Amino acid sequence: MTEEKWSFKKIVKLYDEILSLQHRAEIKREIRDQDDLFMLLCFSEMLGIPNPVSYYTLELYPEMIEKFHDWHLRMGMEKSPLDGIRCC
Q1: Cα R_g (the chain), whole angstroms
Q2: pTM assigned to the model
């Protein structure tokens, strides 16, 4: 049996994992909600909601297409609900 050396980094990592263990599902849900809100901000023009930052989010569309596809599948829609986006 090998004896594992404990370093300060390992102890801090273990402490961080113990603290976040009970809140892991809550943290994942919060990250997913923030991602959905960001996606709504990026695609709000296509939904008819005025977007004051559409000029800045235009460059993000190629990156967001993959996430949009995952999102509409997660929401139970087989095809894209938006006319401007044909992801599948």
Answers
A1: 20
A2: 0.60
